[in-house]
Design the sequence.
């Protein structure tokens, strides 16, 4: 392994610089043609394949201080489409009054390249948003419930029950149009207002979303307070109501627990993990703290576990570098930080 | 086929359920490993205050300093003053690094009651670091072991580069097991396995520990994970699931990585304790007092904490 003189390094493109990184390794092999749900690796007892759902363009950018121009958003999504990621959450069809960062939802939806084999879900909080999303070309939507009444009230000004009723309207229309719906449950491991959340409540809300037709339920540790202990208890309760193959985890890294929590979920058989390129998206409930777990760090861990994701880590890091440059911020991904910092060893 | 499936499921369930230790001993390495790898050199009174504050948190082991030549490690030049200056609370151990007999003797003269020695699982790393082979480095420690035994001073052994080396790249688990076995046979009561550049993942951690546990009883093992690639807590979780019950960490995540400029190094003690608390594992450590100590040293160093728990200013 030769060392690259630093002067030469400055001339090299970002990609070449990345290739010098010994620890990133080769791109992961493509996923098996038809992975059986819950197919378990012989040696480790872990799933053979994990689906990564990239939420950077939506959850990430929505929680960044700087509002990103439409063309940058489109460029980011197009780059992510080339990494092998199977699902990229594109935008949110909510009123721009509430979420100005997502005001350009139509332009983004219409402007992005649509790669075959990649899903581009969008958030639709109600029927109006759903219709708008479909008109703009969306082929998959997501609805957001919460396991906390207080959070539901503070966030969308209605009770959990009322929010479920709204989602049922969306689910019904979606069913008629053969549009898959993904359900999110926020505050699965704790709430900024209520504190502790009972696993049974998470199971109850998950079941409601699943029964109305959501094909997948993403369980979100919204404020990142969960630990492997609370993750396990929560999943045990939810797994009584929802098949494992329909579960995903959406962990925030606000307390540094995300990868340990994700590992716990994977050990229990969860095969879908949400993450955000460069760890975009701070935590709106803890000033200055981080939010989403970084896609790069998740993939690094899964690669090390011999688990297929189909995702090229180098390309994700490049996309991460692109958006961080555009946002003029440092990446939240430790893998990216380590890979760019590693100087030549003499 | 049905039987194999259910057996696999059981193994999986056991792994998932963790069969975790009920108690974990946290070895605080901030004052030594942490400060040694910080850019700013910290004045002696600040070091002493740091260690005294750590002594009030419930931590049972606090690595105080290193008796190496100040020519090599200027940050630890005040080792004698620090050792003499700190409050040594009963029930707390204050191990110090001793690279050779001279350092050992200086340490004992300054009041040390426990010492540590450092080996590595990589020949190139050993050559670059201390200009000899692994075999030769262990021979040098023989003298220390003999003197320590005579003085009834426990010796902790560190193995560096257990999950990867900045020069050699991949490190074979068998090599780690071999070096660990040697150090354990020499008389080290505990072997701390260090992921020196933080490249390890739960996969490589498991593979390495499986090999080492064939040679050294799990009760004598510790893990020393670096968070350079964000993998530390996941790696520690796997180690716990395999029965390891001693974990090294550094308050505020002090100590960058000398092999990746600007990258982080040691895992933060606060973040570790937060996870262990959530798992219902007893550590005896008061997280609030620990965070206060982290705040103190970060102010003194004029730097931000590397602990995410501290950053979140959590409402526990």
Sequence:
């Amino acid at each position: 392994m030769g060392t690259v003189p630093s002067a030469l390094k400055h001339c090299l493109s970002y990609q070449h610089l990345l290739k010098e990184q010994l620890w990133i390794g080769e791109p992961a092999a493509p996923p098996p043609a038809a992975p059986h749900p819950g197919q378990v690796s012989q040696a480790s007892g872990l799933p053979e394949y994990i689906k990564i759902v990239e939420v950077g363009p939506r959850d990430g950018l929505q929680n960044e201080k700087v509002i990103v121009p439409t063309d940058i958003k489109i460029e980011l999504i197009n780059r992510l489409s080339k990494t092998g990621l199977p699902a990229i959450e594109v935008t949110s069809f909510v009123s721009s009054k509430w979420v100005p960062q997502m005001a350009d939802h139509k332009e983004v939806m219409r402007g992005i390249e649509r790669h075959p084999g990649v899903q581009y879900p969008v958030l639709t909080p109600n029927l109006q948003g759903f219709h708008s999303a479909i008109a703009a070309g969306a082929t998959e939507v997501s609805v957001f419930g919460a396991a906390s009444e207080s959070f539901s009230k503070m966030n969308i000004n209605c009770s959990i029950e009322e929010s479920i009723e709204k989602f049922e309207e969306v689910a019904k229309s979606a069913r008629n149009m053969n549009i898959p719906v993904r359900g999110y449950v926020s505050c699965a491991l704790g709430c900024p207002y209520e504190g502790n959340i009972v696993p049974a409540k998470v199971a109850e809300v998950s079941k409601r979303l699943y029964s109305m037709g959501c094909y997948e339920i993403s369980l979100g540790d919204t404020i990142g307070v969960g630990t492997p202990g609370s993750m396990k208890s929560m999943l045990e309760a939810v797994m009584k109501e929802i098949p494992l193959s329909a579960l995903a985890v959406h962990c925030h890294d606000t307390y540094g627990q995300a990868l340990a929590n994700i590992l716990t979920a994977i050990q229990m058989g969860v095969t879908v993990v949400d993450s955000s390129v460069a760890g975009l998206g701070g935590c709106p409930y803890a000033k200055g703290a981080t939010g989403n777990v970084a896609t790069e760090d998740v993939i690094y861990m899964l690669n090390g576990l011999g688990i297929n994701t189909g995702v090229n880590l180098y390309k994700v890091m490049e996309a991460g570098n692109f958006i961080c440059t555009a946002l003029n911020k440092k990446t939240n991904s430790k893998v990216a930080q380590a890979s760019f910092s590693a100087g030549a060893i003499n | 086929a049905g039987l194999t499936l259910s057996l696999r499921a059981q193994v999986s369930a056991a792994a998932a359920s963790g069969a975790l230790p009920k108690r974990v001993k946290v070895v605080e390495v901030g004052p030594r490993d942490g400060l040694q790898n910080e850019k700013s050199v910290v004045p002696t009174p600040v070091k002493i205050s740091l260690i005294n504050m750590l002594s009030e948190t419930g931590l049972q082991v606090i690595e105080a300093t290193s008796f190496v030549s100040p020519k090599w490690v200027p940050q630890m030049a005040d080792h004698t003053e620090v050792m003499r200056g700190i409050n040594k609370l009963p029930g707390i151990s204050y191990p110090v690094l001793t690279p050779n007999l001279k350092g050992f003797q200086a340490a004992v003269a300054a009041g040390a009651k426990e010492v540590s020695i450092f080996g590595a699982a990589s020949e190139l790393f050993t050559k670059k670091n201390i200009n000899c082979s692994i075999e030769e480095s262990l021979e040098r420690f023989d003298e220390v072991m003999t003197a320590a035994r005579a003085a009834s001073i426990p010796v902790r052994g560190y193995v560096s580069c257990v999950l990867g080396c900045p020069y050699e790249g991949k490190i074979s688990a068998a090599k780690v097991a071999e070096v660990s076995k040697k150090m354990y046979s020499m008389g080290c009561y505990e072997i701390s396995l260090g992921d020196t550049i933080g490249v390890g993942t739960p996969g490589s951690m498991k593979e390495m520990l499986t090999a080492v546990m064939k040679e050294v009883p799990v009760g004598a093992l510790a893990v020393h994970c670096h968070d350079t690639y964000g993998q530390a807590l996941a790696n520690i979780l796997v180690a716990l699931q395999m029965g390891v019950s001693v974990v090294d960490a550094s308050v505020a995540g002090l100590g960058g990585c000398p092999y990746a400029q600007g990258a982080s190094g040691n895992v933060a003690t606060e973040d570790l304790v937060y996870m262990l608390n959530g798992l219902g594992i007893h550590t005896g450590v008061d997280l609030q007092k620990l965070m206060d100590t982290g705040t103190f040293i970060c102010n003194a160093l004029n730097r931000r904490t590397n602990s995410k728990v501290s950053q979140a200013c959590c409402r526990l």
Q: What stands out?
A: Chain A touches chain B through 51 residues (CB under 8 Å).
